[in-house]
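Q: Could you fold this chain for me?
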Amino acid sequence: MKRLAVSALFAALFTPAVFAAETEWTTMFDGKSLDGWKAAENPAGFKVENGEIVVNGTRGHLFYLGADGKASFKDFEFQAEVMTTAGSNSGVFIHTTWQDKGWPSHGYEMQVNATHPDKIKTGSIYNVVMVNPAPHKDDEWFTYTITVKGGRVTAKINDKVVTDYQEKDCGIKGDRKLSEGTIALQAHDPKSLVRYRNLKIRAL
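A: Sure. Below is the predicted structure, expressed as structure tokens.
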């Protein structure tokens, strides 16, 4: 009985703190402005409408810097609601870093694409893991969950796992690999229009 009492006390003291740490989300977008974000190369490609980040324009990337300008994550869970329109292409970069022009050279791109001609569809890790056909439809909101933990990347669309990739040290060169960094949204081209809302992230 004494052992059970000690165990119960231990659980009461420590379980809430662990639970809180595992469930504490950071809201990345206030629904009104792009505070905490910084656009590179084509700021006009990102605007806020009806509580959504609307991505439409020539190549550009919107980097999440956070309230202190230093946002960086290693193991994390990211979630957003996304809606693509016909023929549109976008992406969510992970473990990336700010750069003022060009396609981000750090980290991986998690593809956003249902009907754009590119065969690499939503949930893919661009040039690493290909998902095809697309796991969602245009003009419908879907939940995109990206988790990185211990070198493993999983992508879920509406709670269904579409990618489960374990990165291995196989002589990967350059910065196209997991390390640590922030999130960036991609404006791909003027014909692509994609909407994001309810973006949030938590460290694991």
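A (continued): The radius of gyration is 18 Å.
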